[in-house]
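Example S7 (structure tokens).
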């Protein structure tokens, strides 16, 4: 009896362990939103400042978040802390949920105890949680701006597609009946005949539209993944007008802001650059930084290797990083410069957003003009023919 009970208990324990491992495995692939990451850091900063325990803070955050996966991740981290693991070890289990710089800064805060702001010689010194929060909010602000810039043209293009479908299925068939009744189809101009032919084709093979659209989308995705993304990432900084310059400013600002933030937290320049490489999404910039990292580890000049990593880090960016290295202010000057670039990028994005309505209006006017020109002569011809009866 005792043996049976012991066996049952062991089986249940194994099942529980297996379920826990499976749960952790699922969570390892989970990503978290910027809102969730910001919420955690804000709670940690405020409650640690109030003297509340880290584990209790994490559990409270897990209890109040609406994201169940994020709550499970936080609960797992809190359990690890309860079992004697440090914060860095616990959070490093979830690399997809928390970016490298986030985890590195948490580790630095834990090692130094510099979680929140403090005052030294009458000057307030930001804590590492403040640095993480500032970095997250900068990233989210730029991301929000870009989403706003893309939302309007997407809506307009969707509206145009809807109008064109209505014209195809409702207007063009009626026009064909009208011209057929007047026996004028042979006298229609090329544009009119083309529009009617398109309308006839779509009306006859409407069932094939989803297939064609799906094929077009899949072909576009395939082209983007095989060739398009690489071409974009290679040449995006060279795009004329504001777009290329804005992308360049954002990439430089993100790199320099993260560098200064990591150095300010006490992380070495070599380790900071390694974290930046992992956080860099553009492969051409990333590969250049990898080469620079290797040279810097060999004891070569930091600023010159950053300059040679990619053309975007030349000229003004190099001057900033070079002077900062020469004066020992790598944790300060790049951050100031990055903030000025972020501000300029925001202004340029606002300018792009401002001209989008005008561009879309011209595009809509072009579509309307094509339709109008297509039937302008035909309608007047019909009117003339009716007048002759």
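Recovered sequence:
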């Amino acid at each position: 009896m005792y043996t049976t009970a012991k066996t049952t208990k062991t089986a249940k324990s194994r099942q529980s362990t297996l379920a826990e491992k499976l749960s952790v495995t699922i969570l390892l692939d989970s990503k978290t939103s910027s809102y969730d990451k910001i919420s955690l850091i804000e709670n940690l900063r405020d409650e640690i400042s109030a003297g509340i325990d880290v584990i209790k803070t994490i559990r409270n955050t897990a209890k109040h978040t609406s994201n169940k996966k994020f709550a499970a991740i936080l609960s797992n981290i809190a359990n690890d802390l309860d079992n004697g693991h440090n914060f860095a070890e616990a959070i490093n289990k979830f690399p997809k949920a928390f970016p490298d710089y986030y985890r590195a800064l948490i580790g630095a805060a834990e090692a130094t105890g510099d979680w929140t702001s403090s005052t030294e010689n009458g000057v307030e010194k930001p804590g590492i949680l403040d640095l993480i929060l500032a970095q997250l909010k900068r990233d989210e602000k730029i991301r929000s701006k870009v989403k706003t810039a893309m939302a309007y043209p997407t809506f307009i293009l969707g509206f145009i597609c809807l109008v064109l479908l209505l014209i195809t299925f409702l207007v063009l068939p009626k026009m064909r009946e009208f011209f057929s009744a007047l026996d004028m189809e042979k006298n229609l101009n090329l544009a009119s005949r083309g529009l009617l032919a398109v309308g006839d084709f779509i009306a006859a093979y409407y069932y094939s539209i989803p297939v064609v659209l799906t094929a077009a989308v899949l072909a576009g995705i395939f082209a983007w993944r095989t060739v398009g993304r690489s071409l974009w990432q290679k040449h995006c900084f060279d795009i004329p007008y504001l777009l290329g310059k804005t992308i360049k400013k954002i990439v430089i600002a993100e790199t320099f802001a993260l560098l200064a933030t990591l150095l300010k937290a006490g992380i070495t320049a070599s380790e900071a650059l390694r974290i930046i490489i992992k956080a860099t999404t553009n492969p051409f910039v990333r590969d250049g930084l990898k080469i620079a990292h290797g040279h810097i580890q060999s004891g070569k000049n930091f600023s010159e290797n950053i300059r040679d990593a990619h053309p975007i880090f030349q000229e003004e960016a190099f001057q900033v990083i070079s002077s900062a290295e020469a004066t020992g202010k790598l944790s300060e000057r790049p951050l100031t410069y990055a903030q000025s670039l972020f501000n300029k990028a925001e202004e340029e994005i606002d300018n792009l957003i401002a001209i989008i309505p005008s561009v879309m209006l011209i595009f809509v006017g072009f579509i309307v003009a094509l339709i109008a020109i297509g039937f302008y002569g035909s309608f007047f011809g019909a009117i003339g023919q009716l007048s002759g009866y």
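Notes on this example. The mean pLDDT is 81.
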